[in-house]
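Reply to dn_fold:

You asked what the input looked like. This is it:
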Amino acid sequence: MQFQVPQFIEVEDKIFGPLTFKQFVYVAGGLGACYLFWKILPVFISAPLIVMTLALAAVLAFFKFNGRPFITGLEHGFYFLLRSKLYLWRNDESGRDRVATKKQILESAQARDKSLVHVPSLSDSKLHDLAWSLDIKERLGESEGGEDNEEAPQRLRSPLGGM
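and this is what came back:
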């Protein structure tokens, strides 16, 4: 037995001409509010309110922000304004700018160079450490030699000799 799978479930049905029910409610509500402004308030006050209300109704009915209705963006904005926020502040000295002397810069550069040359002891086996250090030196030689070296192996090898 075959069943028909519903498609286009994200597309809202057009109920009032080219408008969906939500769009119709936004437009009708905006027009109703504009009519009330026109009848109740003087013209110099109602005119700016009518323009703003029509603009808001049009944006709510037809504008999508990042694929979502504009009303969700307004909702998130109001929640951001009304809810409490958590502010974190760390008072540490590491974030402040410090003036380094020439001697301190040289010492830090030397320490950095020493850390690059140092081969850590990974195991108790000296043979394993030796194989590892030779493999690293080989890789460093390949990177310094450039890619013109045709004798350099195409794959990196394991320090234990296994493939």
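Strands lie at 14-16, 19-20, 64-65, 68-69.
Hope that clears it up.
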